[in-house]
Write a structure and sequence with these properties.
single chain, alpha/beta, 7-stranded antiparallel beta sheet, 7-stranded parallel beta sheet, 33 strands, 45% helix
Length: 1445
């Protein structure tokens, strides 16, 4: 095998292969204590359905005591979870009489499932009464002081998870009473409650209703209601007690951290915040936290960070009752009102001591220090009196152990009345350009080792948001953290590769190398532009650095020369002596930056790259070809530095600190697809600071409130009553079949069926009047009023206009016979409002989106549509289908560099469209000259679009007006009309005859009008071209195209995020957004396309939002586990809307795969069926040549004593499976399968690298094999398909991330005709989540069964062989057997080819290329670090921001 990319197995490699502390197959299937217990009690082999009986002694002695002895180690809990203990034993055996240990174990394993991101609450749905009992017991136990804090922390985790899952009705039912208005019984005074009722009168009604419910309840219910309203209050008091305990243990701290997470979660959603915030403020939660010994402890940095986040939510500027976000002016007015109340009380009750406070202006008393000085004159008793007058709590129950002394009361008053920054001001001051401080900040470093055992001080993307501004603030914070995380990883990797060393002189030299970095000398500051008016920092700072490219190859030189203006680079100061000091252990605390020797990191933007002669290198490829012999190896790069940071650096230098810029000695770049963070963060921040509203009809649904169906077209007043569906329906039978349950009434006196096109008009029936008086109570589970039970549509038709005599004038028509579900989606998407389409694999999401766009284009010609997709590939697929429809190409525009990959004849980029307009101009001007000649009109009419317009108005239109007079004369015959037609000569090249030969007057008029429409279109397009003759700059032409001409504008979600401000500033407006692959787009990138225009008259013009996606497949790729799981940054708007219960349209028939293959994933999709063609077409009925089965799972045991290995972290490989997959591919190629019809997929990037390496060695240079269409990971192949898929599951110790069934769904749904999976049977068959698929897979033999002696394509019919032995059946016993079999076939094939070509026999092909590695060979693996293409690692995915096109 080639050695360039090989890393021989060594002790060092084997050391890295140590398994992490997670369960392995041995733990779940071996002789472990829990595994034996499971087999004995709940994983019995018998198929009986006897009721599970839980024995208390088994729970206590054999499970609980073992866990307790092991300190509830997470691995032990994972083993129990993997053994299906919760779903197969604990829950089925639960009853109200179950022991406390039983309840605790259920809570523990529920938390484990939540931490592993596994489906949990569905387990409890079968017995709601028992679940309610269980939940109540968990709440009671959370207050039980006899339980250890460790156990109570687990119970608190259960409650946190429950409050994060309010989309589950059963969970919401249990959680809602805990945060209802009844908790206000615990406020410090009735007066405070009355004040709240005065501020919001509807609260008094809610309070009285709660009181009536309590008064009318029986004793048991009253006890439950008292417990529910006191639970949160009691829990909070216990938390305060722990805060002030003298001896603080790690268990105390962890519990308190979790509690702060819990109350932060409650305050971050309006339904749970509404009453809780008042109670927590009444309990002085923030002052109590700030003054506690735990807060003051230096080791509790996380706790202090959590306090800052909690402060943000407590004081978030929003009306807690209505949810209305306060503007900055309103927030300040409320602050002033509070100060006014303080002044009035001070003047009334403390006139002698607080006169200055009472008479001061607001600005002089809203700073903490000023207010404290004014209040210092009061005695302790007077402070208490002042707090009482202000309705502030002045005492706690004894159990809280909080002493309200002078210090505490002063803190309460100061925190109540000090002025705070709004979230907009916080966002404005947040730097989006990283420095060494922000990159190596402890709060960010904390996320590196996140494993779910501790909370983090991060906002979460949740089911609901307080306001649009709240969502944007969270997104800004999280995207900034995620971006900085990726940047720090890249810089750390570069520095380690460069291996900085200190010379004796103290200088730093780099002994290694990295393609992403170059050593440089200090940058030269070229210009510091003075600040703008009102600013205190320079308006621009320009610098220049020199790059030495002598040691770089041509490819790397091109990469450095390819840096474009506005690309971000990083200037880094590395001091190896600092690294040496850290290694020697000098100092007590060494930062991560010092360990690397990183002194400073400064962000800069590229202005331009110059060669040694000062010539700008704009196109590196043409520069290289033009200057191949004379090109220089030195470059000068001009940069724009961060003015704010430069100012700060200069200030520090003036105080005696060293000059940072003197010490910079390294420049680092990042690949373009990872380096889009700055424009995206700028877009998010701009939106956060603006008052950009969402469309009013979408606002509530976006935040997660109101009627879930409120944004659908049936509930909107601007619903279109009549829609022309043009070519959507193919015939009458299609129309009727597509509208099941609806009444179809033919219109215009037609009683029978007729052909398309069809215009559908909905006939609204008035709702029935309800005689009884409606209740004013708002009931939680009340059904919405029914609309007309049966929708009725009146159907009419029309004759499509004749557009001209040439074939090119004929409209392009849809040929897809859409299913009823697809038609429902198309009808909804054509109407105004929100449409959410769930499209399982192969159900035609793209066709649906295309037809929606087509219908909008023709029905609403004045509207513009924004088309968004996650990737260039998906966008190009969608765009190619749009181009194939009856849509004028001049109205199409594709933004972003991905247009280069678009497989269409036209160029749809901005500049390509401009060129296209100019090409159209040239072509039509020639036609104008020809028309002028045919009409005998003298003059140069085809000189420009302007002269063509004059020609049209002077010659063409008058001639047509004169001709229409003859048409309108009823006495004129068909022959008269033909003779009078003024454009005979012009249309002489049209297919003859131009007019019908029969004497049909109407047909003649139709042809004549079609001819004129052809001419009119020509002049109309020339009129559109005229601005491009006037505009001179390419940029102006491109912007005019975007804002005035294009009606369908396509771009990726990343491009939209990057260019949002630029596009909005042009005055760009649009009416519709259609988003493909919406479930793969992060929520902020879902949001930005909805807000890319400025409001008109305070309202957004947006009328339609169509989201197409599949939340059962992969979610957006997020790099860090902490941001992905804890902060839920992987959430898409699509998946959130589905969770919220927004009505969705489920496409329910797949047309991609054989029904047998589709069955492997149909269990994930309710009612997913098969289109008729996948059952009737020969390719779906015929067997796969050489195989007995159309799909098979093939068990691959250890190969040469090895299963999976991990040469570098998360870079997992399995040589046996890789060899098997390649041998299988070779076998298929020898049978004649086209290479383009075969794809090889792996679940890990490491395995992809290994497979590609083996293919390169065995197949790439062998004509009889060649390379498959693609070798890639499952994640990268989402949205793609091929006829035959070979899939390597890779893992042999545990299931790994494939346990996320979304990934399994993607993996199983890529194949059309054949799917062959290689993996380790015992690993996957025991996985509870994957059981539905693996029961089907493992119902067939797990050794490859071949049907030898035939070539591709086969003539065998699969259905005829079911249950029978295949012809020439052969079973492959393992890797070596298949390898030998393929080798023998290859030798025979080569001999046959030589005989056929008349070539003499030569020495046999080297066996090494045709056989798997020999037994005596040492196992070799691809080194992850050496394979540039495979540096992405699926388990820790890359690219926080999706790549720019």
């Amino acid at each position: 095998m080639p050695t360039a990319k090989r890393l021989k197995s060594s002790a060092k490699t084997r050391a890295r292969d140590k398994p992490r502390a997670r369960p392995t197959v041995a733990d779940l299937e071996g002789e472990s204590e829990f595994a034996q217990l499971a087999k004995q009690h709940w994983l019995k082999t018998s198929k009986g359905t006897a009721k599970v009986k839980v024995k208390s002694d088994v729970l206590k002695k054999e499970i609980w005591d073992v866990l307790e002895k092991d300190a509830f180690a997470y691995k032990s809990l994972l083993v129990l979870e993997g053994l299906q203990t919760l779903e197969s034993y604990l829950w089925p055996g639960y009853s109200e009489d179950s022991s406390n240990f039983h309840v605790l174990l259920i809570a523990l394993l529920t938390v484990v499932k939540a931490r592993e991101r596994l489906e949990t609450w569905s387990i409890f749905e079968d017995r709601p009464a028992e679940f309610s009992s269980l939940f109540s017991r968990i709440l009671s136990m959370s207050l039980d002081h006899s339980l250890s804090l460790t156990i109570r922390t687990h119970l608190l985790n259960f409650i946190i998870f429950a409050f994060q899952s309010l989309d589950w009705t059963s969970v919401r039912k249990e959680c809602a009473p805990l945060v209802s208005i009844a908790i206000w019984h615990n406020l410090s005074s009735d007066a405070k409650r009355e004040t709240k009722f005065t501020q919001a009168p509807q609260l008094r009604k809610s309070w009285k209703a709660a009181g009536k419910r309590y008064d009318s309840a029986d004793d048991a219910t009253k006890a439950r209601l008292r417990f529910e309203r006191a639970w949160l209050y009691t829990l909070t008091l216990d938390f305060l007690r722990l805060l002030y305990e003298e001896k603080t243990t790690q268990e105390n701290v962890l519990y308190c951290e979790r509690f702060v997470e819990f109350i932060s979660d409650l305050l971050s959603q309006l339904p749970t915040r509404r009453y809780v915030n008042t109670l927590l403020q009444d309990l002085h939660i923030l002052p109590a936290l700030r003054l506690s010994p735990m807060f003051s402890n230096d080791t509790n940095a996380l706790f202090r960070d959590q306090y800052a986040l909690l402060t943000h939510y407590v004081h978030f500027s929003i009306d807690d009752q209505t949810g209305a976000q306060h503007s900055r002016t309103e927030a300040y007015d409320r602050h002033c009102a509070e100060l006014g109340k303080l002044q009035r009380i001070a003047l009334r009750h403390f006139k002698e001591k607080l006169t200055v406070l009472a008479l001061s202006n607001y600005a002089s008393i809203d700073r903490r220090s000023d207010l404290e000085n004014l209040l210092e004159v009061l005695t302790d008793d007077e402070l208490i009196s002042l707090a009482s007058f202000l309705e502030l709590r002045t005492e706690y129950p004894e159990s809280a152990k909080v002493i309200l002394d002078r210090h505490f009361l002063m803190e309460v008053l100061l925190s109540t009345f000090e002025k705070r920054k709004t979230f907009q001001e916080t966002a404005r001051d947040l730097s989006i350009l990283p420095t060494e401080e922000s990159l190596f900040d402890q709060s960010l470093l904390r996320t590196d080792n996140y494993d779910g055992s501790q909370p983090l001080a991060l906002p979460k993307l949740k089911l609901q948001y307080l306001s649009v501004g709240d969502f944007l603030w969270r997104a800004l914070v999280l995207y900034r953290c995620e971006s900085f995380y990726g940047i720090r990883k890249d810089i750390t990797d570069v520095v380690r590769r460069l291996r900085p060393e200190a010379r004796q002189s103290g200088e730093t030299r780099f002994t290694g190398s990295s393609k992403m970095a170059l050593p440089i000398s200090r940058p030269s500051i070229l210009e510091v532009v003075p600040p703008l008016v009102g600013d205190d920092k320079p308006s621009a700072v320009r610098a220049e650095i020199s790059l030495d490219l002598r040691r770089l190859g041509d490819r790397l030189r091109r990469e450095w020369d390819s840096l474009r203006p506005d690309d971000v680079v990083f200037l880094i100061a590395i001091d190896a002596t600092a690294q040496t000091d850290a290694t020697n252990g000098s100092g007590n605390s060494v930062s991560e930056a010092n360990k690397l020797g990183v002194i400073a990191v400064r962000t800069a933007e590229v202005a331009q790259v110059l060669d040694d002669k000062g010539k700008s290198i704009r196109d590196p490829y043409s520069y290289f070809s033009d200057h191949f012999k004379t090109r220089s190896s030195s470059r000068r790069m001009q940069l724009r530095l961060d003015p704010k940071m430069y100012k700060k650096d200069m200030e520090q230098m003036s105080k005696g600190d060293p000059d940072i810029y003197e010490r910079i000695n390294l420049i680092v770049r990042r690949s373009g697809r990872e380096n889009n963070f700055k424009p995206v963060l700028e877009s998010i921040r701009t939106l956060t600071l603006s008052e950009v509203p969402l469309a009013s009809w979408l606002h509530e649904n976006f935040l997660g409130y109101g009627d879930p169906a409120g944004a659908t077209y049936k509930h909107l007043p601007n619903r279109a009553s009549k829609i022309d569906f043009r070519d959507t329906f193919l015939d009458w039978q299609h129309l009727v079949a597509s509208l099941p349950g609806k009444t179809i009434e033919p219109g215009f006196e037609v009683s029978s069926s007729f052909g398309p096109p069809y215009v559908l008009e909905s006939i609204d029936k008035p709702p029935e009047q309800i005689s009884s008086k409606a209740s004013k109570k708002r009931r939680r589970d009340a059904e919405p009023p029914m609309l007309a039970e049966i929708e009725t549509y009146k159907v009419s038709t029309y004759k499509p206009q004749n557009m001209g005599p040439y074939p090119v004038d004929s409209p392009k028509l849809n040929t897809v016979r859409f299913t009823a579900a697809q038609i429902e989606a198309i009808m909804s998407g054509t109407q105004p409002g929100l449409t959410v389409v769930v499209g399982p694999p192969g159900t035609g999401k793209t066709d649906v989106a295309t037809q929606i766009i087509n219908n909008i284009y023709h029905n609403f010609p004045e509207q513009r549509t924004l088309l968004i997709a996650h990737s260039n590939q998906a966008l190009n697929q969608l765009f190619a289908k749009i181009v194939a429809l009856d849509i004028d190409e001049r109205h199409l525009l594709r933004l972003g560099h991905g247009e280069e990959e678009l497989d269409t004849e036209g160029n749809f980029s901005k500049h390509g469209r401009v060129e296209s307009f100019l090409e159209i101009r040239g072509r039509y001007l020639k036609e104008v000259n020809r028309l002028a000649a045919s009409m005998g009109a003298p003059g140069a009419h085809g000189n420009s679009a302007e002269t063509a317009g004059y020609f049209n108005s002077v010659y063409v239109q008058p001639a047509w007006v004169k001709f229409t007079e003859i048409i309108n004369d009823n006495s004129s015959s068909a022959a008269d009309i033909i003779r009078a037609f003024p454009f005979h000569n012009f249309f002489s090249d049209a297919p003859s005859p131009l007019f019908p030969t029969e004497d049909d007057r109407l047909a003649v008029v139709d042809v004549a009008e079609g001819c004129y429409r052809h001419i009119s279109k020509m002049f109309s397009e020339l009129e559109d071209v005229q601005p491009f003759e006037i505009l001179r700059r390419d940029r102006d032409k491109a912007n005019y195209l975007l804002t005035n001409e294009a009606r369908i504008i396509a771009m990726t979600s990343t491009h939209a995020a990057m260019r949002r401000s630029e596009i909005a500033s042009l005055g760009f407006h649009y009416d519709n957004v259609v988003m493909e692959e919406a479930a793969q787009i992060t929520e902020i990138e879902n949001f930005i396309p909805l807000a890319m225009q400025k409001p008109k008259d305070g309202q957004m013009a947006l009328q339609r939002v169509v989201l197409c996606g599949d939340h059962y497949q992969n979610s957006p790729v997020i790099q860090s586990l902490a941001f992905r799981h804890y902060a839920n940054l992987e959430q898409s708007l699509f998946s959130r809307l589905v969770r919220l219960g927004i009505p969705v349209i489920n496409l329910d028939q797949q047309g991609r795969a054989r029904p047998s293959i589709a069955a492997l994933y149909q269990w994930r999709y309710p009612n997913l069926g098969n289109l008729p063609h996948v059952e009737s077409l020969p390719e779906f009925q015929t067997a796969n040549a050489g195989f007995k089965y159309d799909y098979q799972f093939i068990n691959v045991p250890d190969y040469k004593g090895h299963g999976e290995v991990e040469p570098t972290p998360h870079f997992i490989q399995n040589l046996g499976e890789a060899e098997y997959a390649v041998a299988l591919y070779q076998y298929m190629r020898l049978l004649g399968y086209p290479a383009a019809k075969i794809s090889i997929l792996t679940t890990y990037a490491g395995q992809r690298a290994l497979v590609k390496d083996i293919l390169a060695f065995r197949c790439e240079n062998e004509a009889i094999f060649g390379m498959p269409k693609i070798v890639t990971t499952v994640d990268k192949y989402q949205g793609e398909q091929n006829d035959y898929i070979i899939l390597s599951l890779t893992r042999t110790s545990r299931v790994g991330y494939l346990r996320d069934i979304r990934r399994l769904t993607v993996a199983l749904s890529r194949a059309r005709l054949g799917l062959y999976i290689v993996g380790r049977r015992e690993v996957f068959e025991v996985c509870y989540e994957l059981r539905s698929a693996f029961e089907l897979l493992l119902s067939r033999p797990d050794k490859l069964v071949l049907s030898t002696g035939e070539m591709w394509p086969s003539n065998r019919i699969l259905a005829e062989e079911e249950g029978k032995t295949a012809p020439n059946e052969a079973i492959m016993e393992g890797v070596e057997h298949l390898g030998q079999f393929v080798y023998e076939m290859t030798v025979a094939k080569v001999k046959q080819l030589r005989v056929e070509q008349g070539l003499p026999d030569e020495e046999e092909i080297g066996e090494a290329r045709l056989q798997p590695i020999r037994e005596e060979d040492e196992v070799q693996y691809v080194d992850g670090a050496s394979d540039e293409e495979d540096e992405e690692q699926e388990e820790i995915p890359q690219d926080p921001i999706k790549p720019e096109e």
